[in-house]
Amino acid sequence: MAYTGLTVPLVVMSVFWGFVGFLVPWFIPKGPNREVIITMLMTCSILNHCATREARCYLFWLIAVLAQLNPLFGPQLKNEIIWYIKHHWP
Predict the structure, then answer these.
(1) CA distance linking residue 22 with residue 19, whole number of Å
(2) What angle, 0 to 180 degrees and rounded to 10, lies between the N-to-C axes of helices 34-50 and 7-18?
(3) How confident is the model at residue 30 (pLDDT cuts 50, 70, 90)?
(4) Taking the complete model, does pTM exceed 0.70, yes or no?
(5) Dihedral of alpha carbons 63, 22, 19, 39, sign
């Protein structure tokens, strides 16, 4: 017979992190940082539920490195600067 002492905590934590990762993002108000907040909530819920401590460390590091390769937004430049770069950049 299998040990069932961890069944209740596993189910409770799975429901909690599922709630945080998949239901809470629907209630985040519209704003300039909404996508960042949703990404943060889903990342934390998935990694806290599914991974060991060492795996979480490496996965957060990997996400931080990959986020630098494809950022959510680029530099904010004025039209005058864009025009100057377009016409005067070698």
Answers:
(1) 6
(2) 170
(3) very high
(4) no
(5) positive
